[in-house]
Structure formats: structure tokens, C-alpha cells
Amino acid sequence: MESPQTCCEQGHQNLEAMKAGMFLRKVKSRTWKRQRHYKLQEDCKTIAYKSSWAINSYSTFSISDVEAVRAGHQSEALLSVADEFPADRCFTLVFRGRRGNLDLVAESTKEAQAWIQGIGALMENMENMDESTKLDQWISDWFSKADLNKDGRINFKEAKKLLKMMNVDMNEEHASSLFKMADKSKSETLEDQEFVEFYKMLTERAEVLDLFQDYSSDGQSLSQCDLEEFLREEQLEGEGSYEHALQLIDRYEPSDTARMNHMMSVDGFLMYLTSPEGSIFNPERQDLFQDMSQPLAHYYISSSHNTYLMEDQLKGPSSVEAYIQALKRGCRCVEVDCWNGSNGEPVVYHGHTLTSKILLKDVITTIANYAFKASEYPLIVSIENHCSIEQQEVMARYFRDILGDMLLTNTADSSELPSPEALKRKILLKGKKFENESENPTGEVSDEDEAAEMNKDSPVTESPPTNGKVPELSDLIFCKSVHFHSFEHSRTSAKPNEMSSFSESKARKYSKEAGSDFVLHNTRQLTRVYPSGMRTDSSNYCPVDMWNMGCQIVALNFQTAGMEMDLNDGLFTQNGCSGYILKPEILCKRERLFNPENPEKRDDYHPLLFYVKVISGQQLPKVKQKAWFIVDPLVRVEIFGVPLDQAKQETKHIDNNGFNPLWNETLQFTIHTPELALVRFVVEDYDKASRNDFIGQYTIPFTSIQPGRNPHPSISLHFLYFLI
């Protein structure tokens, strides 16, 4: 093991090598490989790069935008050049958000290690920064943006441009007044500390200052007792709030003197309120808190549709990266569509379309590597099998050999499904299971195959479907796909490990015609719902309608951002992001029928009033990168749940202020079934001539909201104070 000193020296050498810069080969495919010059900037936060033919035009990206560094051949592009470039010279940068990955090849193993270790160390440093350091860095970033001529100071002209960059429309007279107040040296420029004062004047939030002074004994700071009172009165904290107050002071107070005296300044107070600890998400529900020992049918399971696709359903790329991203988001049910490939190798792609093909063995290897990175609870692999008998034998061998002990091979029948706890770190295969070496004695097909048949007239040629299945593969299936006949047939005949799949339209039909029966069915059996075959653009349906019925495996196109995936991410953010959420008791009890269409008929019907006070926002991002453009923000609060709860309200819009908009509006809702409700906060840029532009959103289960002080204590309600 290397000593700390050796590690430190190596780290310094890595950073110096990165700052000096070096040529790395960017790889997009086997035929697209280009030299680029990459170097770490002096701030150790930014990487600049340019083409070998460019003279001075560097582009940049921030280290904070990098989510992970993967060493070796861990992408399709790098796998395609594995025979040309060894794994120890290759690495992949994975970016946050929807930016594509960057695959790079260094000239030597030493250079590759310098970048892999160097970026990893810089990422770790950023993650370990305290709130005060993060604020200093934030201010430094703005100073750098404003200092156009890079002389270490900004003049008033540069300050005006800064205001536009910060998304605030301030009249020149007021801006000049703030600038002069900060210019203590009377030099008509702002230097380091003067800029800090200018920044604080810009970012001062009167609404937060008012709240601060309401609890401050001297009007200047919060003592530990003052902060404890705030935590008890406003945040509704109970036992331990005095000790918690001291922890918050230690964590968020930027002044060493105030911290030593157990005091919190208004700067520290604002840092706390806008930190994750000031979030509306109840911290008790963030980690694993639910009973995980109930049958699988009692849980919502985070599920992906056609997981291998990166874009649309007809001609976009298939990629193992799609599996990596889904699994890292806590997805616990992925899909693998298997077809005959060349050289006896099964491939995965969307059959009868022009989507690209990837090798099944690469998919299974990726699943083996990432199955339990985000969650230890069981992963369901849903197989759609279109392979010949010969290639099915290959499939079975790959599943057994690559997954090894992770693969659940004990598929013995039992009276009920096992629990997530009992299946920790196990991979369950779901698919058709055929007995007596006969493919399907009844001649029935599952709904997935019916959907696939919609494309049978496609001009793309395929190998003919096989009429036989091999026992080696069938024996590995745990969740048996079966055709759905009726709720009565299921109640009297279905085995616990049998499950049916429904298209979104069929699921809606059953929910309207037989809601209680559907809910009862889902107390015993797993149900999978998938998007309509008409959604060729990979759009999604609203999952809430299916969750209301107790459907567990509500499969969505994870690659498509939007309201539907916001709801999915919001639901599965709780319970430790495990990918499993225990369904409400009303959807698990077989003796008490619940119909989401008539929630008021339940025995314990107790609606709640829900008040949301939208106070203010700060530093909202621009939606159009034009220097003169400034947003007119509004906040919309949307309730999703049973039909009676579906509602939305919004604040007025604030003209020309994305920097510190103040709404101070209270919105009111009635929640009839709180345990099924999700609350989505949406910020948009108002446009009277066209559709509003999306700025951001936050979705949270209603039961995970941490309520604030109740201004109407005689009424049963939740009250939420919302600072953006």
C-alpha cells in the first residue's frame, strides 16, 4: 500500500501533467477517432479542449459536470477499438444530465492514469467542500465571468454585463448606487473583497432577513437558543432540536468567530435554508425506512421499457450505456429483447426496426457489473425471446456463466412471492416458461408479442421466429409471463410467480371498468404496464394512473425527460432510492376493496387541506442564452394522485427577474388520498404569445413532505413554505 506522502506526490504530479496539457484521442466509433488537446485550467475546476487544427479556440467543461470516470473499455465506442487500443489507455467521462459521454484514449498508460486519477481526485474535493467554501467558489466564478479583461478587478461596465448574466434586470441608477457602495477604495473598480460586498448586496433576500430577525434576540445573529426556537416553531422539530441547532451552526456558519460563539449570521442562515437540510423532503424518509419483508406484489418497482434504447423506438441507437444509466437511477426492472445475430451471437435491439444492435453478452456483462451499484434489492430482467433454439442455448449459457451466483435459479413454486429482503442481490429472469418441451400448448401469446406483431410488415428482414424453446433457458425463468384472461380466472387459477403485461390503453380500460378488481388482482400478482406501440418517439404515459391501481412494474422510457419521468423519479427518491416502494395499505389489503375512482367511499376517509406558501426564488437559470434575455418566472404547483386529487394552481409571473423573484403567494388544495398523492413544483418563464418555457421542477411524494408551521391549528392540514 502506498504511503499518504506518496499518494500526495502522485496527486500533485497528475495535476501538473493535466495543467501542462496533452493530446488525447476522442473516439465516437471504430472509424471516428480524432486528436484533441485537453488541459486543466489553473482554477483546477475547468478543463479546456480544442481540435488539433484549431489555433486558439478552446471550449471548456467544468469538473462539477462530470458524474463519473470509467477506466478501460466501458462503452460501445471503446469496445469497438479494443483491438487497436489497450484498456489501460482508455477511459470514459460520464457527464451529469443529458450530455453524452466522452470516450478518450491516451498515448500511454501513465497519461491515462494521470487523467483518471486526477479528475477523480478533483471530483472528490468538490464533493467534500463545506457550504462556506462552496459559496466562496460560487462568488469566484461570478467574478471570473465579470472580469472580461482579466485584470483582477471589474469596472461598472463589466458589472452591468454581470447583472445580465445573473438574470436580473436592474435600472442603471440602482446598479450604480450598489456599485459605489461596494467601491470602498473609490477607484471606480471592484477588487476581491469589494466584489464580495457587491455580491452580498445583490443576493440579499429581504424575506429571509425578516424571518431571521423574527427569531434573533439582538437583531444581528441567532444564538443556539434562537435557532432552536426556529427549528421548533417553523420546522416543527421535536426532541434534539437544541443539539441540532449547534450542528447547523458548525456546518453552515461562514464566520469563524460566530461559529466559536455558537452564533449564526444571516449568511449562515441563508446557507442552511437553501441547503439539502433545509429541503421540504422529510429526512426520515430519505434513507431506507420501509418494511422490506412483504411479498414482491406489495411494492412499486422502478421499471424501464426497452432499456437498451438511447433515443426513439424506430431508428435510434441501442447501447449498454442505457442500462448503466437506468441501473444507476435505481431502476429494478430492465428489458432485454433478444434476436438471432451473426456468428451464433444473440443480439439485443428493437425487432423489425432500424435501431442498432448490441451483443447480448455485452448487455448481460453490463447488468452483472451495475445491477447492485445503486440498490441491493432484486433486479428483474424481462426477456423477450425471438431466438432460434441454437441461440437460446447460447442465451442460457451467458445468463448462467456471467451472472453466476447473482442469478436466482431456485424457481420452486410457493404460496406467495418472496420479499425484496429475501431476494437481496439476486437477479430474477422474467419471460415465457415452457413445460414439456412444448412452446405453448394453448396457442396463446403474451401482450408483448402482440405488440411486436404490429411491426411484422416492416421492410426490415428478420430471421423467422422459432417454434421451440430450450429447457435450459426456461428453467432459469422465475417470473412466468402469462396471457391475461380475466380477474376471476387470475383469482382462482394464477400462481404467485405468474404475471401478465398490459399496454397502457388496456390497463386504463380495466381501471375504468373494474377498478376494485384490478386493485385486488395486484395484491397477489405482479402486473407490468408498458407504453403504447404508437409512442415511436419514446414518449411516456402518466404512471400515476397505473400506480393508483397498485400496478407494480410500470415501465417507462427512461431516456425521455419530462413530467412522466419526473413523477417516477419523485416517487422512487424516498426509501433510500432502493427502487422499491411499499404500496399504501389500501392497495395491499385483500379484505378491504379500494377504488381510486371513488376514494371517498373508503372506511377511513380523511381528506387533508394542503397550503403551499411560495415565497421567493434566487438565481434561476436562463432558458435562452441571449445576453439581453431575462426570464419572467412563475411557479405552478401540480397535484397527481387519484382522479379527485388531480389539480394545479400557479402564482403570478414576475417581470424581468430571474435573480431574486418574490411571489409571497399561498395556494390551497384538498387532498383526498394523501398516501397516493405526488406534488410537483414547476418553475416556468411566462410568455404571453406562446407556450411558457420550462426552467425547472421538483417532485415529491405528499407523505414525504416535511410540513412547516400550521397557521390554522384547528384544521387538519399540511402547510409548506417553499423557497426556490
TrEMBL record:
GO BP terms: intracellular signal transduction; lipid catabolic process
Pfam family, one: PI-PLC-X
Annotated segments matching region Disordered: 434-469
SMART domains given in the database record: C2, EFh, PH, PLCXc, PLCYc
Cofactor: Ca(2+)
UniProt-annotated binding residues for Ca(2+) 3: 306, 335, 337, 384
Family annotation (PROSITE patterns): C2, EF_HAND_2, PH_DOMAIN, PIPLC_X_DOMAIN, PIPLC_Y_DOMAIN
Catalytic activity annotation: a 1,2-diacyl-sn-glycero-3-phospho-(1D-myo-inositol-4,5-bisphosphate) + H2O = 1D-myo-inositol 1,4,5-trisphosphate + a 1,2-diacyl-sn-glycerol + H(+); a 1,2-diacyl-sn-glycero-3-phospho-(1D-myo-inositol) + H2O = 1D-myo-inositol 1-phosphate + a 1,2-diacyl-sn-glycerol + H(+)
Glycosylation: residue positions: 185
Record's bilayer topology term: Peripheral membrane protein
List of residues binding substrate: 430, 432, 501, 528
Active site annotation, chain numbering: 305, 350
Keyword Glycoprotein: yes
Domain PI-PLC Y-box: 476-587
Keyword Ribosomal protein: no
Source organism superkingdom: Eukaryota
The C2 domain, residue ranges: 588-716
Major location category of this protein: cytoplasm
Location in the cell: Cytoplasm; Endoplasmic reticulum; Membrane; Nucleus
Cellular component aspect of the GO annotation: endoplasmic reticulum; nucleus; plasma membrane
Domain EF-hand: 134-169, 170-205
Signal peptide stretch: none
EC number(s) from the headed UniProt entry: 3.1.4.11
Protein name: Phosphoinositide phospholipase C
